[in-house]
Specification:
The complex is a heterodimer of chains A (669) and B (76).
Chain A (H helix, E strand, L loop, with lengths): L1 E6 L5 H9 L3 E5 L6 E6 L7 E4 L11 H12 L4 E7 L3 H12 L5 E6 L1 H6 L3 E2 L1 H8 L3 E3 L8 H14 L14 H20 L3 H10 L4 H5 L3 H18 L3 H20 E2 L5 H13 L5 H19 L1 H26 L3 H19 L2 H17 L1 H15 L7 H6 L4 H7 L6 H10 L9 H11 L4 H25 L11 E3 L7 H20 L1 H14 L14 H9 L11 H9 L5 H10 L4 H8 L5 H13 L4 H11 L2 H29 L1
Parallel strand pairs in A: 1-4, 1-5, 5-6, 6-8
Antiparallel strand pairs in A: 2-3, 3-4, 7-9
Helix pairs in contact in A: 3-11, 5-11, 7-8, 7-10, 13-16, 14-15, 14-16, 15-24, 15-27, 16-23, 19-30, 21-22, 21-28, 21-29, 22-29, 23-24, 24-27, 25-26, 26-27, 29-31, 30-31
Chain B lengths: L10 E7 L3 H9 L7 E7 L6 E5 L2 E5 L1 H4 L2 E6 L2
The chains are: A alpha/beta (669), B alpha+beta (76).
Amino acid sequence: MVFALAGNQNSGKTTLFNALTGSNQHVGNFPGVTVERKSGEVKGKKDCTIVDLPGIYSIRPYTQEEVVSTDFILNEHPDGIINIVDATNIERNLYLTLQLLELKVPTVVALNMMDEVRENGGSVDVEKLSGILGVPVVPIAAAKGEGISELLEVALETANRKALPSVYDFCNDGGPVHRCIHAIVHLIQDHADSLGLPCRFCVTRLIEGDGDMDEKLGINQNEKELIEHCVVEMENSTGLDRNAALADMRYNFIENAVAQAVIKSSESKEHRRSVAIDRILTGKYTAIPVFIFVMFLVFWLTFHAVGQRMSDILATGIEMLTQAADKGLVSYGINPVVRSLIIDGIFAGVGSVLSFLPIVVTLFFFLSILEDTGYMARIAFVMDSLLRKIGLSGRSFVPMLMGFGCSVPAIMATRTLSSDRDRKMTILLTPYMSCSAKIPIYAVFSAAFFPRHAALVMIALYVTGILVGIIAALMFKSTLFRGKPVPFVMELPNYRLPSAKTVALLLWEKAKDFIERAFTIIFLGSMVIWFLQTFDSRLNVVSSSADSLLAIIGRFIAPVFAPLGFNDWRVATSLISGFTAKESVISTLAVLLGTSIDSLGQVLGSLFTPLTAVSFLVFTLLYTPCVAAVAAVRRELDSSLKTLTVVISQCVIAWITALVVYTVGRLLF
Amino acid sequence: MTLDKLKIGKSGKITSVGGEGALRLRFLDMGLIPHTVVRMQKTAPSGDPIQILIRGYELTLRLEEASKIEIEELSE
């Protein structure tokens, strides 16, 4: 049995999904598009799957999220829909509900956040509301886990009975909208029935005139004219155009339903609290300082106090494990080439990447807190006018901010932008936000060359990335992406404490993903690099890595970097391996220099001067994103040629910027 | 008058919703419908975008977008 979980953004959908499925989740994509599709098995129920549809406010064919949600329900025929409705914001949430009811699928309304409604002295007559909507309504409090089992029971029962929504007439006033809808129903009922499409949904689509519904239904010219005639008559009598007339009809129905079944609380405690918090967080003089402070705190905790400390501990543990494994292999008397593969290849490569897991997880922890509390939306609100200067909207700020964690989810997060132009531009700019996988490179180099100013070097690198990004954005704005940023009509949800479970599951997902990458891409990459540096062109084991296959490739490319001050095949090779994953720049350098990560710093002094180190850092900051990010860009831009352009232009920009830095540096020092 | 001209703390009733295409549909979906009462809550530090209270929730939109919405101001 398959259920679709549908609801507005900020309605607690993810919390409910997690409460229903626990950790049995599978993340993928909807076919053909790049919208994330999460599904999960219901805990304790066999063969019962929930598909988490994207958070939407409407099912017009206008954003990708809306299209995949509608297509999923119409084409994949789920056995039921669970529609989550935020009871504290019931009017706007029911708007989507009315559209879902037209799809003629057994539906249950999960009335979420009922605890808040009750605490504030409000109440909902669930039975009455259920009668008005013609579907079961179950009050729940997803964050507290209340009502979840009842919801599941009702949903299963409704789906088993194949109980269709009994109300689909929202135009019960006999007025012009009613006449228009019913006239069109008569016209197309047979068409829709023979195609197995829900009639009311088709009628709405025809009136709104969106998409290709008339072609789908095979409506002839005569019928088309009749429909248009009905719609024009409705427009004339209501004084509203077709879209406004339908929206007006739905909201009228909702207001009527709410008047009968809902006793609204005066002003909720949560809303008052949000307004009070906003006085500071989006206040005229306090917003920007608070934002900078919050970002500073997040970065400090991630890259110093918490994340970095845990990484150090993990690195020590891995080092000890490596030594123990080495000892064991030696005493076992294993073939030295195999020992080298395991210790110098796999342990060194995977181990060095794995030790950065805590930093990545810590960063995602803070990003998810910012998102789930509702602060991310405020950041977009505060930053919008600034981002508009570079031709973007405040909403692009959130994906770009996530770019500091990892470009892959950041690029994926651009899907929430409804304009193609904004989405593409944000995707192209995200790689300039230095991702967390580059931190190991910065950390090792700044510890080796600028031990007393490590933090300053880090900040300077991040700022350089942002500045180059801004320059790129200004160039895009006046060339590739002329036009206006997307509308900025966005909900600012009440501040809420995120549920520990939601955060924990998200972190688990990210950690799993990171570990998977460490043991797949980086595992393979480490072995390939090990192979290339252990054997020469005649597949003999080399005595010095300077004779290896890798040295040949590296030597071929190295001269490209001569103007930047680091003409060395090992450096060139590490940059090539950085394409598989940025962390491997460091692991490759460690392997090639025959040292561990811990003592890499001392050895680097023989390859770099402080100035060439800076030049190298600037290059790594800006050059092509890793293969996973490039794959994400390819998926989102849907063009190999454009993706290739991104890769090449990033490398060129990196090379030029590093050259400028190196040249200026040489003149100054 | 238009929504962008509403003073902070004041309320108004929507008389007509303008705009085109995606923007207009977004207005309608978010509940900005004629006869709906909105209250101006605040502006971002730079004065744009603005934040309004509508149907019990907070919505943000830009001045330029708000200027597409005609309202009549309500006295307290």
